[in-house]
Specification:
Blueprint: H1 13-22, E1 60-74, E2 82-93, H2 106-116, H3 124-128, E3 135-136, E4 145-151, H4 162-170, E5 174-180, E6 187-189, E7 193-195, H5 198-204, H6 210-230, E8 242-252, H7 254-265, E9 269-275, E10 292-297, H8 308-316, E11 321-326, H9 337-344, H10 355-375, E12 392-394
Parallel strand pairs: 1-3, 4-5, 4-8, 8-9, 9-10, 10-11
Antiparallel strand pairs: 1-2, 2-5, 6-7, 11-12
């Protein structure tokens, strides 16, 4: 039976912490930067007081949502259902026409707040009203652009990586950000259905098989999304923007592992990034057929560190590769939560560098990687440490 939640999930703080710790995630959101300048037309109300850093590229950003159903595949968590996904398409826009894209539905925001135990600091209306640069259904800018698939961390909504998706779109990429059903604290589907995290319940029962299953399943999800975006009858009306020969993927936490899982089974993905995710589904000894891969994480993900899966992945990667750490970051520094935390007044003191600096570093190295491997543009920042970015540590085990 499908488990849906009208806007309030069960009280499960202990479950949430257990799941987060098992996946290598910090259970609290992190510190963040001062409020950025809102997009043109954004309201200055309490419901819009959280604002993500503006993207730095030359283009305006549009966003549209897709509901995709893979009728050939049963859902791994609720087998009586077909596998369904929500996908946000971020793209270079011709103008900033259109209303600001909504960050989360109120139901999604409420479930996220309950999952993180931060109800004393922020309410669902404020979190849902977080402002970003994207405009809903803005007219696309003409051209053909590389496609980057994005997969979020376990329990996290696809829009918790909005700042990165918008940065890529502003620099001339199309981004497909995927929500994987039953793997986030709550995802709203058409008709108002909000699906809770069935996979979290299974993981909380200490079922060690869950995480490899999540990653491998997300690999199949990503390939299905590519089929629907690049096939003869694409699901997205602006699919003509996509250059089908230039496809990359980036993910955070289990979504980073899913990048590897996708590349194992899908040769269309030319380059991938794992941001601070354990390789529960490992890179095979045969490698990735020479394709580019970057591992970008905290200093806990360093050679000989507690997560030995990164050492093994490095050995097996057989193409262009980089292993980078960002000093002063925590697990959740690679998504939007640091920004949300500081602007909502949530204390943590986990990371010594500010979230605006973390945002800058993540954007710099992710966009440089895709510029190099999907556009053929040399980016020296990927070659060696620089005085401008002393927080970045290059590992060459």
């Amino acid at each position: 039976m499908t488990r849906t939640f009208p806007g309030v999930r069960r009280s499960a703080a202990a479950v949430t912490v257990a799941v987060a710790m098992a996946a290598g995630a910090a259970p609290l959101v992190l510190s963040a930067p001062a409020v950025a300048t809102p997009p043109a037309g954004a309201e200055s109300t309490a419901a819009a007081r959280i604002v993500l850093p503006a993207p730095t590229g030359a283009f305006a950003v549009g966003r549209e949502s897709l509901h995709l159903v893979d009728r050939s595949r049963a859902d791994p968590w609720v087998p009586g259902n077909r596998r369904e996904l929500m996908v946000s398409m971020f793209y270079p826009a011709a103008t900033e026409a259109g209303p600001p894209a909504r960050y989360l539905t109120t139901a999604e925001a409420q479930l996220f707040i309950e999952d993180r135990g931060v109800g004393d600091f922020v309410d669902a209306a404020t979190l849902s009203g977080t402002r970003s640069a994207a405009r809903e259904s803005a007219p696309p800018r003409r051209g053909r652009y590389p496609l980057v698939v994005l997969s979020p961390g376990f329990t996290l909504h696809r829009h918790t990586q909005t700042h990165l998706a918008e940065e890529l779109a502003s620099r001339g990429y199309v981004v497909a950000a995927i929500d994987h059903a039953y793997e986030s604290s709550g995802t709203t589907f058409p008709g108002g259905r909000t699906l809770g995290c069935v996979a979290c319940d299974i993981a909380a029962e200490a079922d060690a098989t869950v995480y490899p299953q999540v990653s491998a399943g997300r690999g199949r999800d990503a390939s299905f999304v590519l089929d629907r975006l690049t096939g003869a009858r694409p699901a997205w009306r602006h699919a003509g923007l996509i250059d089908r020969t230039r496809i990359g993927m980036v993910g955070h936490s289990i979504g980073g592992n899913a990048t590897g899982s996708t590349m194992i089974g899908d040769q269309r993905v030319r380059a991938g990034i794992n941001m601070d995710g354990t390789f529960f589904d490992p890179i095979p000894a045969a490698g990735l057929n020479g394709r580019a891969f970057m591992m970008l994480g905290t200093t806990e993900h360093a050679p000989g560190g507690r997560d030995t899966s990164w050492d093994q992945a490095w050995t097996n990667l057989d193409g262009w590769k980089r292993w980078l750490s960002i000093t002063g970051t925590g697990h959740l520094s690679f998504c939007d939560t640091p920004v949300l935390a500081e602007q909502a007044g949530i204390p943590s003191g986990i990371t010594p560098i500010s979230a605006d600096r973390t945002v800058e570093l993540v954007r710099t190295y992710v966009t440089a990687f895709f510029d190099k491997h999907l556009r053929g543009t040399d980016r020296p920042v990927l070659d060696a440490p620089t005085a401008a970015n002393p927080e970045i540590v290059f590992h060459q085990p």
